[in-house]
Amino acid sequence: MRKKHVLSVVGARPNFMKMAPLLRELSKEEIFHSSLVHTGQHYDEVMSKVFFRDLNMQAPDFNLNVGSGSHAVQTAEIMKSFERVCDQAKPDLVIVAGDVNSTLACSLTAVKLQIPVAHLEAGLRSFDRTMPEEINRIVTDSISDVLFTTEESGNVNLRREGIAEEKIHFVGNTMIDSLVSCAGLLHHTRLGGALGALDGAAYFLATVHRPSNVDDPGPLSQVLDILESASQFAPVLFVTHPRTRSRLEEIGRDSELSEIDDELREIRQGSVYFLPPLPYVEFFKLMSKCTAVLTDSGGIQEETTFLRIPCLTMRDNTERPSTVDLGTNQLVGLDEPAVRSCLKTIISGEWKVSSVPPFWDGRAAERVVEVLKKILGRN
Ligand code: UD1
């Protein structure tokens, strides 16, 4: 029988940890020929290359090198280049992950060429159409042929939107597969270099990069005020995304934050420390040892739930409600008194009792491949 060509797509940082375990499982199966496209939506060493190394990912077979741009420009450039790849590679199936512009661009391109599309992490909804990711999710789900969901809310949302039951496959969370497969590294390694001073210390870890929180000076200043307020309880390590860093520079607030450098001997309460984007394993180590996380990231809400680390999400909504209903997550918006009150509870050891959602067990990629074998094996 001819091998079925499965063409997977990655583009931006959160795609790498979702796709790495699936690529590994696909490569074990004789019936599949698996290849990989990197759109180049993220391209810096620390936003892209280090993840291939840390997650032990196969090198891309196709690099589109699209780079940054407005939503329309970036989406259009990916579509133009990805169409050429599809014409050349003639895949039997395209797999996209998550909710970034690369996800939307490649699913739309494939479906117009009548190539079936599978969407990993389907069905999540924030019900906030001002988020670019929400538009990407809705469009991608509506045109995908196979929808892999990570949590029960995804199944409910897809059914409500009229997606046929046989297209929906509740497999769990491949991003948690990546955490599970890297977990062994944590027990044997101390935080290295300047971060060694953190071993055993109380600290908060912060990441903020949503356009609604960082693009305008008003919300961005509120974010900084919250982090400064949090630092009165314990030092804050603020890992900055390139979008956030450039906005902080624009409003002249970057100089107020201390850079962590190799001279660091101790971290002080009352300080917010500014770090560049970190490789996957370094960030995982920092997250697994911190007292709590303050974030507006989607993926980190899930990772902290799995690690049972308290998470305060600086947004008014979440497309991942299981992290709040079952997990360690709490929505706090940009409400500084709410953050202080939560941090007091966390420090006193009285944060809510949590559990890990079903199928967040390190085996989601195996379940995805079982489904794909059935679907592609019968054609
Ligand atoms: C994108 C995703 C977002 C995801 C985030 C994770 C969309 C719509 N948004 O947002 O869902 O949570 O990635 O990181 O797809 N830049 C660099 N180096 C890079 C990449 C970007 O410096 O390697 C800078 C550029 O100035 C760029 C800006 O970051 O303009 C924003 O990048 P972009 O990919 O447009 O959106 P993100 O904010 O990263």
Largest sheet: 7 strands, parallel
- End-to-end gap: 11 Å
Order of helices and strands: EHEHEHEHEHEHEHEHHEHEEHEHEHEHH
Which small molecules are bound? Answer: uridine-diphosphate-N-acetylglucosamine
The helix fraction, in percent, is: 40-55%
Number of continuous helical runs: 15
Structural class: alpha/beta
Which range does the strand content fall in? Answer: 15-25%
If you compute it from the alpha carbons, what radius of gyration comes out, rounded to the nearest whole angstrom? 20 Å
Number of strands: 14
| Widest β-sheet, arrangement of strands | 3-2-1-4-5-6-7
Uncertain residue segments: none
Any idea what the shape is?
globular
Let me know the average pLDDT. Answer: 94
How would you sum up this structure, described in words?
By secondary structure, this protein is an alpha/beta fold. 45% of the residues lie in helices and 15% in strands. The chain has 15 helices and 14 strands. It has helices spanning 13-27, 45-54, 71-89, 101-112, 132-143, 152-160, 174-188, 211-214, 217-231, 242-250, 280-289, 298-307, 322-325, 336-347, 364-377; strands at residues 4-10, 32-38, 62-63, 93-97, 117-122, 146-149, 168-170, 204-207, 236-239, 258-259, 272-275, 292-295, 311-313, 329-331. It has a seven-stranded parallel beta sheet, with helices on both faces. A seven-stranded parallel beta sheet has the order 10-11-9-8-12-13-14, with helices on both faces. β13, α13 (322-325) and β14 (329-331) form a beta-alpha-beta unit. α1 packs parallel to α2, α1 (13-27) packs across α15 (364-377) and α9 packs parallel to α14. The relative contact order is 0.13. The model has no long low-confidence stretch (mean pLDDT 94). It binds uridine-diphosphate-N-acetylglucosamine. The site of uridine-diphosphate-N-acetylglucosamine has 18 residues, from α1, α5 and α10.
